[in-house]
Each structure stands twice: as C-alpha cells, then as structure tokens.
Design goal:
The structure holds two protein chains of two kinds.
Chain A lengths: L2 E3 L4 E9 L6 H11 L9 E4 L5 E14 L2 E9 L7 H8 L4 E4 L8 H5 L1
Parallel strand pairs in A: 2-5, 2-6
Antiparallel strand pairs in A: 1-2, 3-4, 4-5
Chain B lengths: L5 E3 L1 H18 L3 E6 L4 E6 L6 H21 L7 E5 L4 E7 L3 E7 L5 H27 L12 H9 L1
Antiparallel strand pairs in B: 2-3, 2-6, 4-5, 5-6
Helix pairs in contact in B: 1-3
Classes of the chains: A alpha/beta, B alpha+beta.
Chain lengths: ~120, ~160
C-alpha cells in the first residue's frame, strides 16, 4: 500500500511490472529510465543473472510531480518472469499499489501470457 | 487481508526521527534508517550525504523479503535480525513490529555488541510508535488522505 508522509508532504506508491519471461518488462523500465528527465529519477537497480535475466527485481524510483501539495513518488519494480521464480515474484508483489501486465505479442507466447 | 495503508503524521514522524537520531549517537553508527517492508524509506539519520538511501531502502526490504521466504521454507516464523560484515562497513538489519525495518550501518568506530544493545532499546521504542501509527490507520473515523484528491487532480498530474 502507498506510504504517505505528512511532514515531508510525500505520497509514495509501488508499481510492479508483471508478465511472462522475456516479454520486455525490464526493457519497459529501461525505456522509461532513458526518457525521463534526470532530475525526476533515481538510480535504476537490476538484480540480474550473468545473462541479464532478472533474478530478483529491477527497481526505478521516479518523481512525477505534485498533487494537492504532495510530491508523488513512484517506485517501479519488475518481477522475474520465469515460472520457476514464483517465490520471489510473490515477495515483490507484496504491498503493491498497481500492476502493469506486459504481454508478449508473439502468437507462440500466448500460452506463456496466460500461465 | 491486505495490510492497511501507512500514514505518517508529523507527531509520529518526529518521534521516529528522535529514536533514530539517538541510535546514531548511542551506537556510534554511521547511518540509521527506517524502511517500510514494502521498500519505502521512512526516516534516515546520520551521515547520509553520499548514500543512495532510496536504493538502500528498496534493497534492504528485498533482503528481508528474501530471508522471509527462506524462513517460510524452513517453517520458521521470521529471521528478525540480520548482520552483514564488510571490510570497512557492516550492516545490522532488524525487523520492528513485523512491519518496518531498522537498518544500522556502522564501521570500526563501534562494535557489533554495542549496536545490538542499542538496537534492542530502539526496537522497543519504535514498536510502540508504529503500533500507534497502525492503530490510527485502522481507525474508521480517521479521514483518508486521498479524500480531497479528485480525478481531475490525477489527470492534471499526468498531463504535464
């Protein structure tokens, strides 16, 4: 759930990118990172394997702007897509405010999207 | 059931900050910070100048989540305390009240024993404060901080 700090006037939200393996969740985050004003973003962290598959999560903090005097901060996470990383995927989904489902548009991956 | 949304009002924030400020001094630590289990930084004290506290908060929460997963596999309730020993710096991580994480970064100016002793007292104080915070969050008469935010406000936020 979101965390609200009245003293620093901040609302922090957690968004998780979810979807099958190799569908482009990390690529989505990298695209946002590359297109965002440097003042509005923090460091992007990737906990990945040697072959650059997400092992635990990718993390990107973003500042979107103000709403009713509150700064809004979004923490974007991705989960590892492979089915056998089920346990770590569930851990990252804890306390989530929104989920972005990234589907693979290839016909051959239709089953993977459902799974 | 999902855990209630955490809202930190000025009074409780000042209390948390006072506990962490004191822990930095009493334990002779470099940095102390309190993180929500979802990875949101709540407060930081000490020499935070060159530290990426947002990333540290997220990774500390990920660490607690992963060891929580190990605990489940071993049919343990939780590993509430963790210690990482480095060459120059060490990290002591303590789960407080099952809801937040107290992280202490320290070097050779102090000892693990002193840090553990001081963390124990801070843990008790923070437990009381966060029990109050969560009781307020569950109070049905407490106004929602989102009550005044309209759909137009949200549209305006993303239209910039």
């Amino acid at each position: 759930m979101s965390f609200i700090n009245y003293l620093s006037r901040e609302i922090n939200c957690k968004i998780v990118y979810y979807g099958p393996g190799l569908c482009g969740k990390t690529t989505n985050l990298q695209y946002i990172y590359n297109r965002t004003n440097p003042d509005a973003k923090g460091k992007m962290i990737s906990l990945a394997t040697e072959t650059e598959r997400t092992l635990f999560f990718d993390f990107l903090p973003l500042e979107i702007g103000e709403i009713r005097g509150f700064k809004t901060r979004f923490h974007l996470y991705t989960v590892p897509g492979q089915v056998f990383y089920d346990a770590s995927r569930k851990l990252i989904l804890k306390g989530v405010d929104g989920v972005v489902f990234v589907a693979d548009s290839q016909m051959l991956r239709a089953e993977a999207n459902i799974e | 059931m999902a855990s209630p949304q955490m809202v930190m009002y000025e009074e409780e924030f000042a209390q948390v900050q006072a506990v962490t400020d004191r822990l930095v001094q009493d334990a002779n630590a470099r940095v102390v910070f309190v993180v929500d289990k979802n990875g949101q930084l709540i407060s930081a004290s000490g020499d935070t100048g060159d530290l990426d506290t947002t990333s540290l908060a997220s990774l500390a929460a990920g660490n607690i989540a992963a060891t929580g997963g190990i605990a489940q596999l071993l049919r343990e309730q939780e590993f509430a305390t963790q210690y990482h020993e480095g060459v120059r710096q060490n990290v002591h991580i303590q789960v407080v009240s099952g809801r937040v994480i107290l992280v202490v970064i320290f070097d050779n100016r102090t000892s693990l024993g002193l840090v553990r002793l001081r963390v124990k007292r801070a843990n008790e104080q923070l437990t009381r404060i966060f029990e109050m915070v969560m009781a307020k969050a569950q109070d049905p008469f407490q106004a929602s901080p989102f009550a005044e935010i309209t759909d137009d406000d949200i549209d305006n936020l993303f239209n910039d």
